[in-house]
Amino acid sequence: MDFLTSADFWFLSLTSLAKTIFLIFLVVLPMVSYTVYAERRVSALIQDRVGPNRTGFPTSLIPGISKDFSPFLGGLGQPVADAMKFLLKEDFVPGHVNKLYFWLAPCLAMMPAIVTLAAIPFGSSFLGVKMVVADINVGLLFMFAISSVSVYGIVLAGWSSNSKYPFLGGIRSTSQMISYELCMGLSAVPVLLVCGSTGLSAIVNYQVREGWLLAPFTNGGLSFREIALWVPIIIAFITFTISMFAETNRLPFDLPESETELVAGYHTEYSSMKFALFFLGEYTAMIAGSALIVVLFLGGWHLPFIPDGAGQGGLAFLHAIPSWIWGLVNITAFFAKVAVLLLVFIWVRWTLPRFRYDQLMKLGWLYLFEIALVNIFLTAGILAFTK
Amino acid sequence: MAYVVPRPNLTWKEKIYLPSIVAGMMITFKHLKRMLKGETKVVMQYPEEKWDAQMPEHYRGAPTLVTDEHGRERCVACQLCEFICPPRAITIKPEEIPSGDKFAKVEKRPKVFEIDMIRCIYCGLCEEVCPEQAIFLRKDYAITGITRAEMVHDKAKLYELGGVFTGLVNKWNPKK
Ligand code: SF4
Ligand code: SF4
Question: What are the CA-CA distances from residue A163 to residues A93, A101, A160, A269, B168 (Å)?
Fold first, then answer.
C-alpha cells in the first residue's frame, strides 16, 4: 500500500496519462485524419486533379464573423466532415455475418496500432519527463509482437463477413503478414547489433551520440567504421521499409483490399464507423511504422546541433535558451520526420502498380528474406573486424 | 493455335526494380510540381467555371417543348414520345381543341405534358420520334431541385425552357 500512496507512483501515473492523451488524441488521431486528407490531396495532384479543396470551417455560423475559415490550399475542414459522415451513417450489419467476430474485428484492427505507439520515444524530455509512454527495454520486440496482432482484425473481418471477397482478402492478408513480418524483424537486427539494445530510447540515444544510422555524419565526422557500417544499414533500411509497406497493407502490397479484384477486400461488408475503424487502424499503423523507421534509422527526435530537452549536447551557445523549448523542438522534429515519411508512403502508393500475388510471395521469401539474413552476418562481420 | 508470348529479357537494372521505382516516383513528382505551380490546368471548378461555351452542337440536355412562329404549341398530343421513352419519363393527357380556337383545325393538343427529370436519361428518342418537331433536347444540364415534385417539368416549364422554334413543319399554317 505504501507504493500506492507514494509520490512517485502518482507522478508516474499522471505523467503517463498526460503523455498518452497528448500522443493519441492531440497528435496521432489528428495526424491520421490529416494523412487521409493529404492522401486525397496528393493523389489528386499527382493525377493532375485538384482534390478536396472546398470544405472549410464554417466560422460564419459564429455571430460576429462574416467569413468562413478556409486557409492554405482549402479543404482543411474535410477530415472533420468525413468523420461526421462516418458517425452519422447507418451502421448496417448484414444478416449473414457472424455477429460477435464481425463486431470484434474493427476493434482488433485498430487497437494494436495504437498500442504500439506506447513504446515510441517521440521526444527527448520535457520539463524533466521522458517523452515516451512506456520506456521498456524490449521496445522493438514489443512493437513487433503487438503489430502482428493486428492481422487478427483483418482475418476475423474476412472470415466473419461470410462472403467470398472479404474471405479472400483475409486469407491474403494472413499469408502476406506472415511472410513480411519475418523479413521486417530480420532487417531490424543489424540496427540492434550496432546499437546493442532493443530499447527504442537506447537506440535513439546511440544515434544522438554517434550520428543517425542512415546519416552517420550528423555527429560531425565519419570514421572508417561508420562508412563500413553504412552499407548494411542502407540495405537494412530498404528491406525494412519495403516490409513496412507490406505490413501496413499499403500499395504496392495492398492485396488484402485490392479494389480491382476483391471489391474492397476484408472490409467489403462494413459500413459507417466500423469501416472507419479499419481505416483509422490502417493509418495509425502507417504512422506507427513511420515512427519506427524514424526511431531506427533517422535519429528519432534528434536534430544535428540542437540540444535535447535537458539542455545537453548541441551547440554550446544554444544552451542559453531554456531547455523546455528544446524539448518542444525535439518533439516537433520527430513528428516532422514522421510526416515526411508519411508523404513518401503516399507518394509511393500513387506511383506504383500493385504486385501480383505470386510476385509478392516470391519477393518476400526468395529475395527480401535472404537479403535481410545475409545482411545480419555482414553487419556482425563488420562489427567484429572494426572493433 | 497456341501462341507463345516471348518473355522479354530483362536487364540487371530492370530486374532489381528499384531504379524503375525511383524513375516512376520522379514522374509523379513532376506532375505534382506542375500542379502546385499551376502549370497544369485540366479541372474546371464547376459552379464558378462553366463549360457552356465549349458545349458541342449535338449536346443532349433537358427535353423541352416548343411553339411555332404563330404561338401555336407544336405538340399534337400523338403520344408517340410517351410510348418510345425508355424510362417512361413522359406523361401526356390529350385534349380536344375547342372549335372556336384559332388553331381548331389541329384538333388535338396536350392538356397535361409532364417529363419526370429524375427518370429522363437524355437519350433523345422523344425528339427523334416526334412527327411534329415539337420536342427538342436543349442544352440545359443543371436540372436540380430539392423535392421530387420539383423535378417533374410540367407543360408551362417545358414551354418556358423550349421557347419558339420555326420552320420545317408548315402543314398547320394558313394557306397563302
Ligand atoms: S430524352 Fe429520352 S428519356 Fe428523356 S424524355 Fe426523351 S425519350 Fe424520354
Ligand atoms: S411531343 Fe411530338 S411525339 Fe410527343 S406527343 Fe407531342 S407531337 Fe407527339
Answer: 13, 14, 8, 8, 60
Q: What are the sequence ranges of the domains in chain A?
A: 94-385
Contact A238 B21 (CB under 8 A): no
Provide the pLDDT for residue B121: 92
pLDDT at A1: 56
Tell me how far the alpha carbon of residue B164 lies from the centroid of ligand 2, in angstroms. Answer: 16
| Residue B175 binned pLDDT confidence (cut-offs 50, 70, 90) | low
Put simply, the answer to whether A48 touches B42 (Cβ < 8 Å) is yes
Domain with B72 in it: what CATH number? 3.30.70.3270
Q: Do B27 and A351 touch (CB under 8 A)?
A: yes
Average pLDDT over residues A212-226: 73
Total number of domains constituting chain B: 1
Can you tell me which residue has the cell 507514494?
A6
Q: Which residue among B18, B21, B35 sits closest to A48, beta carbon to beta carbon?
A: B35
A347: alpha, beta or left? (left if phi > 0; alpha if psi -120 to 50):
alpha
Q: If you measure CA to CA, which chain A residue comes closest to B25?
A: A351
Instruction: Considering only the C-alpha atoms of chain B, give the largest distance between any 2 of them, rounded to a whole number of Å.
Output: 92
Q: Which domain holds residue B129?
A: 53-162
- Is B39 within a domain? no
Q: What is the pLDDT of residues A37-83, one digit of tens each?
A: 888 888 888 888 888 887 777 777 777 776 766 666 677 888 888 88
Q: Does A2 touch chain B (CB under 8 A)?
A: no
**Element (DSSP H or E) covering residue A38:** helix A29-46
Q: Which atom from ligand 2 is nearest to the alpha carbon of B77?
A: 5
- Give bridge partners of residue B64 from the DSSP assignment: B136
What pLDDT digit, counting tens, does each position of B72-109 carry?
888 888 999 999 999 999 999 999 988 888 888 888 88
Q: Tell me which residue of B133, B134, B140, B131 sits closest to B161, measured CA to CA.
A: B140
